[in-house]
Amino acid sequence: MNKTAKIVVGIVVVVLVIFGLSSMSKKSGTDSETVKIGFMGPLSGDTANIGQNAQAAIAIAVDEINNAGGVLGKNVEVIYEDDGCSGATAANAVSKLINTDKVVAILGAACSGATLGAAPIAEAAKVPMLSYCSTNPTVSQAGDYIFRNVPSDFFQANYAANYLMGKGMKNVALLTSKDDWGDGLKKAFTDAFTKAGGVIVSSDSFDPASKDLKAQLTTIKGMNVDAVYFAGYTDPSIAGLKQAHDLGIKAQFFGADAWDDTKIWSELGTLGDGAMFTVVGTNSSADFKAKMKAKLGKDDLIYCSNYAYDGLKILAAAINKADSVSKTAVKDALSKIKYTGGVGSAEVMFDNNGDPTTAAYIIKRALGGKLTEVSQ
Amino acid sequence: MITWQIILYILYAGVLYSLLVIGFGFILRSVKFFNVAYGGAFLVGGYMMFLFYRVLVISFIPAIFLSLFISGLYLFLSHKFIFSFLINRKANNFVLLIASFGFLTATSSVLGMIFGSQATIIARRLSDIHSLNIFGGTLNIVEALAIIIIFTLICIFAFIYFKTHFGRVIRAVEDDSEVAELVGIPKGKIFSQLFFIGGALAGLGGIIQGLNVGIVPASGLLFMLPVIVISVLGGIRSFWGGIIGAFILAIAQKLTVVFFGGSWEQAVPFVILIIVLLVRPEGILKK
């Protein structure tokens, strides 16, 4: 290395060090001025649209809270962490939020696997965690500090099972995502459906990263079932429904809340016709949809985002109610809270498990790339 | 009925793997390292097709040739600016493997930033990909055309490889590139050509996958794993070995799903790899 190069490198190093020090000192200066809340969600990977959509909804909530005076007289600051929808990544993300950012409470995660991966760490550190999208039944038992404002899949699968039985579809094949969310739905649906007198003809699963469900669907085709309960996220669902259409399977395809993603139906177009799914009925107003559209520049509202928006407001309300940033006080306030007027559900209260006390489901059907609510 | 349908799907999976392993094999046998950047060419092909066909609305055939050219160019340039340097410096295979892995990771991250990490579907309307009835079984138009085109390509490449002057040059370089250079074969130029051809073949795989079910930035690595397993399984020194390996893997994966369920599908390549390494480490077909 010649002399000029050494000088250039030296200058670069000095500039970087000064820049680093100044930005660090700035950060520690703002510490006492904001109330920090952590966010976890999939900001990358197959399910990134869920996390990114929720991020937009939370940004709206943060602005509204801060414009209305903030929390405990301070502004709310949300620290966003990517959990990639996986338990291992979520465990790292939650440790970072708790130990480095010292957040008061955590909003997350979206995917059940991620929430279950992060929950033991939040529980051990006694940091209240509120999931806005994890519906796996086992989240109920994840700990005292773990809450969610979205109902457990136990109710969703029950609702779907009873609906199919009510329509006289007694023979059903299961096709579920091989992860905590899919496994939870599979178990809950099997229990509810066999109890109601139905027959689970086959029960198969698929890798969430796979987009080739042809062999599974071929087996299902040979079984002459009335309906296929197909619990998958966006990408495998598009591929699976297309492949089912290729194979000419006539059975009713019935999905779960993850199908409430407009991408699936706009890509499939008429190929998705007739497919139905359960989703928690939201209180989402035209007003909130318009805010989301203004934020994102397009019509895109995933139902989890309703709960993410509410979730942040619930956490803010709990911190105000606790009148402190003590994590235990916030947790106690959360368990006694009664939050009304949300966009997810009209009223949220938590039971002993940290689950919402009410769950109202609706069924939607796809037709020509659009979703309509099925009246019952 | 089911058996026939599964056979059709095996056929499709087998030819798609064959296509990928032919291009991969050309590069592997000549430069003698697992060039994982090959998966990057798979992605580049698929995403370029998406860009040309669906975003820029160029018509189908020109869009395919443009995408194939760019995916070939991608691997060609990766050789010109990265691998040829390392090879000339006598870097060992491990360094080359890591470099190619880094190149693939960078490629998929960049593509993810541009096109998003969710599935990108090339078809303008999924209903355009209609299904065909084949003696009672079903294949969609992409799968059927892929089978025909790839079979033709296999024949063409087998002919070039075994019967033409260019094929003899390739085999000489594969055999011993230093000696080949001594008898006047321009090693660097042949490597470049093989990288271009390999890139275009991988790109075609990406286009087929993207048209059929859509690709994600992670597909590059997801497809590299079975391709590497196939190369080892068939015998890395053999042209036909790769194709036999491709079909063995396709059969094993589909039958696993039928008999044991879908959650085991991704594990099959590795179980096969371990068995082959234990029983017959040189692969099914020795050279």
Automatic annotation (TrEMBL), chain A:
Residues 34-364 form the Leucine-binding protein domain. The chain crosses the membrane at residues 7-24. Pfam families: Peripla_BP_6. Keywords: Membrane, Signal, Transmembrane, Transmembrane helix. SUPFAM superfamilies: Periplasmic binding protein-like I. Belongs to the leucine-binding protein family. This is Leucine-binding protein domain-containing protein.
Automatic annotation (TrEMBL), chain B:
Its main location: membrane. One of its GO terms (biological process) is amino acid transport. InterPro entries: ABC_transp_permease, BCAA_transport_permease. One of its GO terms (cellular component) is plasma membrane. The keyword Transport applies. GO terms for molecular function: transmembrane transporter activity. It is found in: Cell membrane. It holds the Pfam family BPD_transp_2. It is a multi-pass membrane protein. The chain crosses the membrane at residues 6-28, 35-53, 59-82, 94-121, 141-162, 190-208, 267-285. It comes from the Bacteria. Belongs to the binding-protein-dependent transport system permease family. LivHM subfamily. This is Branched-chain amino acid ABC transporter permease.
